[in-house]
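FAQ: What does a ligand-bound record look like?

Like this one, built around iron/sulfur cluster:
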Amino acid sequence: MHPFSYTRATDTRQAVAAGRAGGRYIAGGTTLVDLMRETVERPKTLIDISGLPLREVTVTRRGGLRIGALVRMGEAAADRKVRASYPVISQALELSASAQLRNMATIGGNIMQRTRCTYFRDVSADCNKRDPGSGCAALEGHNRTHAILGTSDACVATHPSDVAVAFAALEATVHLLGPDGERRVPFVDFLLRPGNTPNHEQAVRKGELIIAVEIPALPRPLRSGYLKVRDRQSYEFALTSAAVALHIRGGVIREAKVAAGGVGTVPWKLPAVERELIGERPSNALWAKAAEHAVDGARPLQRNRFKVELLKRTIERQLRIVGGGK
Ligand code: SF4
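The answer part, i.e. the structure of the complex:
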């Protein structure tokens, strides 16, 4: 580990000023400390923001939810308001990491976490995300767990978060506080596809601090849930996953929110699947037909072709679990 200085922020303004001066924010530290040990990350200054007052889950005036950036994953998963309104969020959180990690890691840190591509964490390997211009060892290497959607010739790594898939499906908004004040970024624009600059991963400007994630109010009744498919049943990242929320009234699907995880360089919103569902009556035939669109534009690699079929089946199965049907 390289030497660094450490400072504790006592209010958000002080934190942002320190961030603007080049410091890196740290809260739970469950990703950053690992990466510092492996010398993948070498921050000169850490700003501990864990004492800032960003630990509440509140109902917004419009009936949505605002989850403070420093709410722990475990706290958010157990929160009654989250469980009652958006089971897809609590399920995604409960299927993430280990209980110990969920008790430390925060919502803000979760959406800022970096890829689990093994080459990214191996400082002897070529990796454009860690060392721009060096190449991508995964393109011809062990790419079984890598992305099939949103990839580029520069990077094919998946985004590892589960709850980010739920946030993408529900069309959440990220609230940021920076030197110029507060701004909001739609979640689907917050995480960046790699393109030619895979080292730029989030739409965060210098010094900006995530203060909350807001979930919009959606029509009720709303059924929702998260399905995660992985090599083993605990403490493992998704091969594929599906976040689904459906508003069904009068036997007709009025609203559909669907996103996939484990397959995209960012959580992968599926508007073509949603369009196929809206205005239709739930049925097994409909779920299968809609799920075909989940792989629109997919570009599998040599070792992850199985994800194309697996993704279709994951989406179809979760549509059936959430929406019922015959
Ligand atoms: Fe690096 Fe991305 Fe290639 Fe992995 S897939 S080695 S993170 S450039």
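Follow-up question: can I read anything off the structure? Yes, for example: The pocket of iron/sulfur cluster is lined by residues 115, 117, 119-120, 127-129, 136-138, 155-157, 198 (CB under 6 Å).
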